[in-house]
Amino acid sequence: MPTVPKWVADAMESVFSGKSRKVLVTDIVYLNPFIKKITFKGDISNVRFKVGWAIFIRVDDTNFRNYTPSYWNSEAGVFEVIFHLHGNGPGSHYINSLKLNDVVSVGLPRGYDFYKKEHEYHFFFGDETTIGFFESLKTTIEENSQNYIGILELDTNTMNYEIKTNFVLDIVAASTDKAQNAIVLLKNLPEQVWELWRTGVFYLIGNGKSIQNFRKALKEKGVSGRNIITQPYWVEGKIGL
Ligand SMILES: Cc1cc2nc3c(=O)[nH]c(=O)nc-3n(C[C@H](O)[C@H](O)[C@H](O)COP(=O)(O)OP(=O)(O)OC[C@H]3O[C@@H](n4cnc5c(N)ncnc54)[C@H](O)[C@@H]3O)c2cc1C
């Protein structure tokens, strides 16, 4: 989402007022010093939500940023989002500054049908920004008695600390030539595991370049493009995808 003048941002918020809400910060948990999970409460009755759908948050006078709720309950008026505090932009600074009882302006969720119910085997590849997506995907997969494995590629700051997530994935350090450590792990997957997953569904979310490289490696291993779902969340040097 591009930076716009304040009057345009104000106008957007009022034009979309039917599609946005003011919500309250009611709980904050740090999963790691660089990963902040926030619970929001407000009137979201009758609002539709599917796994992987994103909201946008007004982060200052002129900017909106996209984020993916890890949990959504319209009836209870509660949702949660897991944020990466990468420290490089207005979104990250705003989220870092949020405290209990702050009021936040949020655009209602929208997106594709990411979850592929027909598959028994699901594979995740992502980074700090995708933890929320994977938490909600994992819940849905387990509700349907299906299986998941996957890899999280983390930057050096995040790698220095444990992360408390509700899923278990392999963790690798982000490499300068994106996804290379993850690709090594993919190539070394035990044969019996690969036999089960090779026709499964692969969700590649997060950094654009990592997605590109990991997708190429999957195709080289014979995975059909139809079974690979991609959604870039950020790209080095680009503002607010
Ligand atoms: C559909 C969608 C859903 C998303 N869901 C989530 C989510 O649930 N949680 C979450 O944390 N993020 C999520 N993101 C990513 C988030 O919107 C971007 O990281 C966004 O750029 C953050 O805005 P910013 O103002 O902090 O940085 P920007 O002003 O957009 O960017 C400033 C600089 O920071 C760099 N940058 C941006 N993100 C990162 C990063 N993660 N690590 C290192 N450098 C970065 C940019 O490349 C740029 O150079 C999502 C993005 C999309 C498109």
Describe the structure in your own words.
The chain has 241 residues and is an alpha/beta fold. The protein folds into two domains: 6-110, Beta Barrel (Elongation Factor Tu (Ef-tu), domain 3), CATH 2.40.30; 121-234, Nucleotide-binding domain of ferredoxin-NADP reductase (FNR) module (Rossmann fold). The protein has helices at 6-15, 90-97, 131-143, 156-159, 180-187, 191-197, 208-220; strands at 20-32, 35-41, 54-58, 64-67, 69-73, 78-84, 103-110, 121-126, 147-154, 170-173, 201-207, 228-234. The protein has a seven-stranded antiparallel β-sheet. α5 (180-187) packs parallel to α7. It is globular. It starts with 5 loop residues before the first helix and ends in a 7-residue tail after the last strand. 34% of the residues are buried. The protein binds flavin-adenine dinucleotide. Flavin-adenine dinucleotide (FAD) is lined by residues 54, 65-68, 81-84, 86, 88-92, 128-129, 132, 233-241.
Name the strands of the widest sheet in spatial order: 4-3-7-1-2-6-5
Rg calc: 18 Å
Mean pLDDT: 94
Architecture of the largest domain, according to CATH?
A: 3-Layer(aba) Sandwich
Total of DSSP H or I helical runs spanning 4+ residues: 7
Percentage of residues in DSSP E strands = 25-35%
Structural class: alpha/beta
State the distance separating the first and last CA atoms: 5 Å
